[in-house]
């Protein structure tokens, strides 16, 4: 019998998505009749706007959309994405520089597969979204963490980035607004980081999926426009999931120089071919329409954001800086780890999150999933009443910690 491992080392190294795992556990408990409130899922609680759904219904009726279409995306959608990018980021791109992907996630995998050779280093600001490490690893890249904390609102400085740079650094991953922290870099900070990357010949991969979800005085800035010095060494990742409440439709994209886009399109042509035409036509209606739907969601998220931050900071041992974008709060719970609570003494934020799920029936994602133990991520993309009830339950439980 072969003694060779059944699963390849490369794939064995991939861990389960912690955010999806928390969500699945909460849903299973709910299905079993327990009144669980979930702060795990990273998706808007709104439905996709009607005009977008209508566009999909029309497309489903058209025989030409029952067939294969170009692997890189429908030409009209690529053009609309180029136009939208100019409108929202002030960044001029041609349709040929766009690759339409199966969600932003596929764009993440494809960009690292396209840019990285084994051993190439990628600077990643921690806390980071759980998918990046897996995509970097699978491409043979080496992730180098640049760890931030609540004292700077989870923003990395040029000095910190420079301290992590080596001869092998090829890419800086830039995510603003950030999942999981909600941090948003100012236009000046963004430009300074972009200039520094350009000075050292680095590529910048920038994930702009939360571009329209910024609050208060915060402003979204595309690093591609803020630092023209980067020239063509920028790849933008984006998608319709968060802006138009379209997580299930699976449409994202990657924008970059034509050689990168061509290479990534070759990869996609062998992996998945074209994204579902029906979804692409829905995305076309979304990106070529106005931004009123996201404005409505933003108002609701902003209200919930203020409520959750206030309530979290009222819990003894919890400290939450104000998130400026996306729909996540990222409080520190370091002071509570190791304390006695309902006869147990959780030794990590992971164990504390488990205890909260069992005792308060509230699901949060522990910071371990994002490269920084000692924190929780709470998505506030859930109904106002559930939000208040969930944080109250958690607060009541945590105030028993001794
Ligand atoms: C930062 C970030 N980028 C990309 C994505 C990918 O989204 P999707 O694959 O649903 O388009 C997500 C989803 O959670 C995200 O949070």
List the helices and strands and how they pair.
Layout: H1 9-12, H2 18-31, E1 37-38, H3 50-61, H4 75-89, E2 98-101, H5 103-115, E3 121-126, H6 131-138, E4 142-147, H7 158-164, E5 169-175, H8 187-199, E6 203-207, H9 223-226, E7 234-239, E8 252-255, H10 258-271, H11 277-288, H12 292-313, E9 328-329, H13 349-360, E10 362-363, E11 365-366, E12 376-379, H14 384-398
Parallel strand pairs: 1-10, 3-4, 3-5, 5-6, 6-7
Antiparallel strand pairs: 2-8, 7-8, 9-12, 11-12
Helix pairs in contact: 3-11, 4-11, 5-6, 5-10, 12-14
Bound molecules: pyridoxal-5'-phosphate.
Overall mean pLDDT: 96
Listed once per kind, the bound small molecules are: pyridoxal-5'-phosphate
Radius of gyration: 21 Å
Q: How do the strands of the widest beta sheet line up side by side?
A: 2-8-7-6-5-3-4
Order of SSEs, N→C? HHEHHEHEHEHEHEHEEHHHEHEEEH
Low-confidence region ranges: none
- Name the shape in a single word: globular
Q: Fraction of residues in helices?
A: 40-55%
| Number of H- or I-type helical stretches | 14
Strand content: 5-15%
Oligomer: single chain
State the major sheet: 7 strands, mixed
Spatial gap, N to C terminus: 55 Å
Quantity of strands, as a count: 12
Briefly note the structural class of the backbone: alpha/beta
